[in-house]
Task: structure prediction
Amino acid sequence: MSTPGRPIADIMRAAHAAGIAIPAFNIPHLPMMAGVVRALRETETFGLIAVARLEWMKFESRSLEAVAEEYRRQMDPRYTRLHLDHVPVIDEDQLQVDYRAILQSAIRAGYDSLMVDGSRLPLAKNIAATREAVALGHGAGLPVEAELGAVLGHEAGPLPPYDELFRSGKGFTDPEEARRFVAETGVDWLSVSIGNIHGAISGAAKSAQKVQARLSIPHLQQLHRTVSVPLVLHGGSGIQKSFVIEGIRNGIAKINVGTAIRQAYEAARGNAGAAEEAVFQAVKQVIVEELEVAGSARRLNPPSG
Result:
């Protein structure tokens, strides 16, 4: 059973129309969830609790079912919904993934929204896989997110220098491809590449400070003019604030945050109380100082009646 209350599809549309970003906080370690929910509640902010396949494969969130069970214990429908983040068709290790089975498991577990990631595929195959995921999600009454373009950072080995990536526009989402992609898949939300990168997930790099990324706002504006669905920014940790705020003004309705809160937890994890407090403070900083979305639940998910 999905979270009671206003459907996340409606909340996302309201955020898109109002120019408000919904933060999605990734949970690679189950004890992080309590601090995230507490921060959302205390700041009266609407946000998503999210888990990606790599977080139960390479960290300690155990499984999508374990995350759903912990969510049932911690959730507050005034401020939270549960989102299945990146389910790749081809993963960061270039292995084929049974994404259909994972999406079906998430539907059974009560997730409120789903994401399929076919961004490592050629366009036509990404469209085909996403169309299939949309059929599964919509058949269960759930919105589906997909990705077009290459949000780098999870692959093995070091990235090329960030400035080189940004100047070249390597992997940036093509606006005309985005138009075709949205039209042919029926996807509800679109994750785009406009200079954002993921935090590293393996080796010493996963504890290193993330590269301070920036966003190509002109490229985002072109995408925003081209497609009408809410746009999503992955790799939200570490992006310069001025770019984030301008991104929200230009169609970004959901921002994924992972590295900043994961590293806060991992630095304090020897003490359960200190680790929860570290996550709480890190999430609160993102909400209040970086995204400036404190109080958003009053507009996005007001009490009924």
